[in-house]
Amino acid sequence: MNLVVQKYGGSSLADAERMRYVAARVADRRARGHALVVVVSAMGDTTDALIALARQVTDHPEDREMDLLLATGEVVSCTLLAMALRAQGVPARSFTGAQAGILTDRVHGRARILRIKPARIWQALEQQEVAIVAGFQGITAGTDITTLGRGGSDTTAVALAAALGAPMCEIYTDVEGVFTCDPRLEPRARRLPEISYEEMLEMASQGARVMHPRAVELGAIYGVPILVASSFTDAPGTIIHGASAMEPTNKVRGISHDMDVAKVTALGLPDRPGVAARLFAALEAAHVAADAIVQNASVHGPETDLTFTVRKDDLQRAVAAVEPALAAVGARGLQTNEALGKVSIVGTGVLNTPGYAARMFRTLSEAGINIELITTSEIRITCMVDRDRVPEAVRALHAAFELERPEALGT
Amino acid sequence: MNLVVQKYGGSSLADAERMRYVAARVADRRARGHALVVVVSAMGDTTDALIALARQVTDHPEDREMDLLLATGEVVSCTLLAMALRAQGVPARSFTGAQAGILTDRVHGRARILRIKPARIWQALEQQEVAIVAGFQGITAGTDITTLGRGGSDTTAVALAAALGAPMCEIYTDVEGVFTCDPRLEPRARRLPEISYEEMLEMASQGARVMHPRAVELGAIYGVPILVASSFTDAPGTIIHGASAMEPTNKVRGISHDMDVAKVTALGLPDRPGVAARLFAALEAAHVAADAIVQNASVHGPETDLTFTVRKDDLQRAVAAVEPALAAVGARGLQTNEALGKVSIVGTGVLNTPGYAARMFRTLSEAGINIELITTSEIRITCMVDRDRVPEAVRALHAAFELERPEALGT
Asked: Least packed by Cβ within 10 Å: which of A26, A322, B133, B176?
């Protein structure tokens, strides 16, 4: 039936006028013969307003109540978009996450989708209706409402596309696609017409705000191609998809950065098995995701230091979680640094291609930027630096790898 | 378990401060050994704001979408009240109408409750939690969200009290109970400590804004006593309950009034069976409730006039509904009057007690107020008059029946 799943973010639905504009885009697409499922975020800054309201009532809102509260934001958007479509003569029907059959686990505030039972969505599509689905939310087996946490609406969209077997998931947002680096930092940044899941994952997890890595990962697992494009223009966007043979593999595709990094160093850990496991079990129990993890085997004695990074917002929770574990294993202490950022070069093969790492470190060094920590993956090299120096580092690396050139090969 | 169902209206939950105040009241009640189910309306003017938002998107929002949109208002309140209670150390859990098991028919915007399956409410009560329920809403067998229309949250509360077998339903609002007439019109109005379901029904259906007749009716059917009191004070309120032998029956209990009345007169209807039925079938199909209906058998020929009243807001819909029916039966035409109000005297036996009707008509006549239409029930006499004269009529009748006196007997 030529099915497309689209997702529109909060800034694309900020007011009634934007709502009508998005409705017109959806109507136009439907007129071109597509069956449509449209996933929506909450309007503009609705979610922040609801959080503020809860904070007026209590300093410690309970997670379950918070989820039920926040889920109303996407419900409001989906009903209004359905109304806007009907006003333009397009049959449309709104669905809460529960009605769309998004079944999740019970981890409030950051629930994972377990399964989708999209019976009502199929029914709507069979009746030629556009199905509008409230993103970011689901329901547990015990009929509690959950929210999916960061990247939630993107995740809803990609998961629905996978469950419905849609050949494409389109994420409409306020940027025109994936760029070689943040265009706000470097005006010569260039839009990438396509990028592989793996590269996008690295870009996203290293701070490119375009899409949450979780949704990209889901796309990779289920092989759903994802188009990221602007809802404000008709620019073509970026397609995220499986590796393409047409692409030269050995090149830097982009520079990503992240201003939201905190570093935790556990000092004087006994160098024996099980110590790190204990630490990260404590973090996991507190639902804090550690990003980079670095430990050097000790060469000077029975003790070692272990460093990991978390999101700045999670720092307090991370410290509270690991402190008892550190005390229990007899560590010497804890150091934290909240004023860090990350800058990464991303591209298939960068790590294994001689010269990339060296060129990255040399570029930063020539700019007088000190490297606090280095981590790597097969397709990414990341340096942690002072947060204040991040924009400068991005610009220097963009120039060093000649990313402003359409066919930049990097070496 | 000493169960009480309470309901708090929107003005009682208008902001975070009021929310904390209501939480303190609930906490206090629980500390005195009660198990509590608390039904909430949307905060302040949230519902109006959501309606305005929908109107910005379209002039004709669809009923189903509107219900899903509006239902979010009560969900927001119930989560915030649950948070406020937890912040005060009281275990509490919020429930949407669907989670509370409020099953309704499919008439969006004015759904009727079919059945309540309060399994989750019982579960919360067994765990010593206060159950906070979003009023005004339910769910259909097809998992669509419905709203109950006017008086919806009161209806939720009374229906839950009936389903749970609670010995009392307490409705907290911004008035101190049921008065002999509207205290804003007549400062000598007196609070009634108690009133029968039947009298309250007549008061409510004739415009006393304290409680919707639908909820009173439900209380009468299931024998649930209802306390109406202010959430802003500790004043004792009014108990609505079954007829009490301690009460003298023959007296005027109060004067109710309604400023929101429109009159429709169908002119020159053929005087044969089936004509009125056809008219009211058309009204019913349009979901317009006609209030007073007056027809005089014709004495001068084969034609008759028929008059009925509707809410001012329903006038356009009523006219649109009956016009085709009138044309089909060959009526001569239609007259409408939007500028009417009603004033009623209410009390068990008023119609059958000599002197009440006469005193009412004489009082209005002496005040120079013309009576447009008269309707009666066993316990009520209603006169329709110019809307502008309603306040004056209320004051004149309050004085004529000596309602300012604590033991006013009316004759």
From this structure: B176
Query: Measured between alpha carbons, how far is residue B84 from residues A109, A340, B15 in Å?
Result: 19, 37, 12
B/e letters for A176-197, b = 16+ CB within 10 Å, e = fewer, are: bbbbbbbeebbeebbbbebbbb
Of B15, B50, B86, the CB nearest to A58: B86
* Domain B255-400, second-level architecture: 2-Layer Sandwich (3.30)
Please state the domain extents for chain A. 3-174, 255-400
Fold (topology level) of A3-174 = Carbamate kinase (3.40.1160)
- Measured in angstroms, the CA of A24 and the nearest CA of chain B are apart by 12
The Cα–Cα gap between B76 and B42 comes to: 7
**What ipTM score was computed for the predicted complex, to two decimals?**
0.75
Residue B346 forms beta bridges with which residues?
B254, B380
**pTM higher than 0.90, yes or no?**
no
CB A174 within 8 A of CB A9: yes
What are B18-53's pLDDT values in tens digits? 999 999 999 999 999 999 999 999 999 999 999 999
Instruction: Kindly report the average pLDDT of chain A as a whole number.
Output: 89
Q: Which of residues 60-89 of B touch A (CB under 8 A)?
A: 60-62, 64-66, 68-69, 71-72, 75-76, 78-80, 82-84, 86-87
Shortest distance between the Cα of B33 and any Cα of chain A, in A, equals 25
CB B310 within 8 A of CB B264: yes
Residue range A230-285, pLDDT digits in tens: 998 888 999 999 865 444 555 788 999 999 899 999 888 887 777 888 888 888 88
pLDDT score recorded for residue A140: 97
Helical (H) or strand (E) element with A395: helix A390-400
How far apart, in whole angstroms, are the C-alpha atoms of residue B192 and residue B199? 11
DSSP secondary structure, A193-254, as one string = SEEEHHHHHHHHHTT-TTS-HHHHHHHHHHT--EEEEESSS----EEEES--TTS-SSS--E
User: Within 10 Å of residue B309's Cβ, how many Cβ atoms?
Assistant: 27
List pLDDT tens digits, range A138-160.
999 999 999 998 889 999 999 99
3-state class (DSSP) for residue B387: helix
Q: Which residue has the higher pLDDT, A68 or B349?
A: A68
